[in-house]
């Protein structure tokens, strides 16, 4: 069974978000505007919890416990292109994000989810973050099915496509608001993703298309309904959120 660990990318991103001083980053890959970085530690203590991120992690861990108790769930829910196309088992486009190949696979994905998802949730809120995650998880499975078709005989599991979508969404958010955050966080994401994508090409056990599909889906989702902070009128001293499409 092919696993989608995305270990190098998410592991590096987890380290980035854990160290507030690395590369000029602060509070979740630079998600603190320049004008608000003073008194950061004090604000962090009273910050609301990242509820969507925590709940996604809880559901995913619970699903893995069920998978260990009933190993047949992995075969039932893993992405199988042939079963999707021949037997119409379309649920396999979504269920792989709930399954993992090992405790280490689960741990790394959940660590990255907590860090990257937590950073995005502070900007997007719980509902939009959860939607980005779900869409990216599906998108990460759609792309290999479309591009490989019946030639893909492997089974694939893992939430890394969904996590990659959070990375893509965070990159779009930082790019869209670079006038507020600067560019250090965006550059760190770019360098880490490029480096690990290149390394991933050397392994047959890494589902690179799933990661790419998730990344692109997350980026597109962020562009369409992600946070878009603008001044409501010329000379205003505050920003309002005006996404291209308002869902919530």
From TrEMBL:
Residues 88-226 form the Peptidase S54 rhomboid domain. InterPro entries: Peptidase_S54_rhomboid_dom (IPR022764), Rhomboid-like_sf (IPR035952), Rhomboid_protease_S54 (IPR050925). Residues 1-20 form the signal peptide. The chain crosses the membrane at residues 129-147, 153-175. It is found in: Membrane. It comes from the Eukaryota. Keywords: Membrane, Signal, Transmembrane, Transmembrane helix. This is Peptidase S54 rhomboid domain-containing protein.
């Amino acid at each position: 069974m092919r696993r989608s660990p995305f270990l190098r990318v998410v592991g590096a991103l987890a380290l980035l978000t854990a160290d507030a001083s690395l590369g000029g980053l602060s509070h979740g890959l630079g998600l603190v505007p320049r004008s608000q970085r003073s008194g950061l530690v004090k604000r962090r203590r009273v910050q609301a919890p990242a509820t969507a991120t925590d709940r996604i992690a809880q559901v995913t861990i619970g699903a893995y416990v069920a998978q260990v108790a009933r190993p047949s769930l992995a075969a039932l829910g893993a992405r199988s292109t042939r079963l999707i196309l021949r037997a119409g088992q379309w649920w396999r486009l979504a269920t792989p994000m709930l399954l993992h190949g090992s405790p280490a696979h689960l741990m790394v994905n959940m660590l990255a989810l907590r860090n990257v998802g937590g950073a995005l949730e502070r900007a997007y809120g719980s509902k939009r973050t959860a939607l980005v995650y779900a869409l990216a998880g599906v998108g990460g499975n759609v792309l290999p099915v479309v591009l490989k078709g019946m030639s893909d005989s492997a089974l694939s599991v893992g939430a890394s496509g969904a996590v990659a979508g959070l990375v893509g969404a965070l990159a779009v958010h930082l790019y869209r608001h670079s006038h507020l955050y600067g560019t250090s966080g965006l550059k760190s994401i770019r360098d880490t993703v490029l480096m690990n994508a290149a390394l991933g090409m050397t392994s047959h056990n890494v589902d690179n298309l799933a990661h790419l599909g998730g990344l692109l889906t997350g980026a597109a989702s962020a562009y369409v309904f992600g946070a878009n902070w603008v001044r409501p009128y010329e000379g205003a001293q505050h920003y309002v959120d005006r996404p291209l499409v308002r869902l919530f």
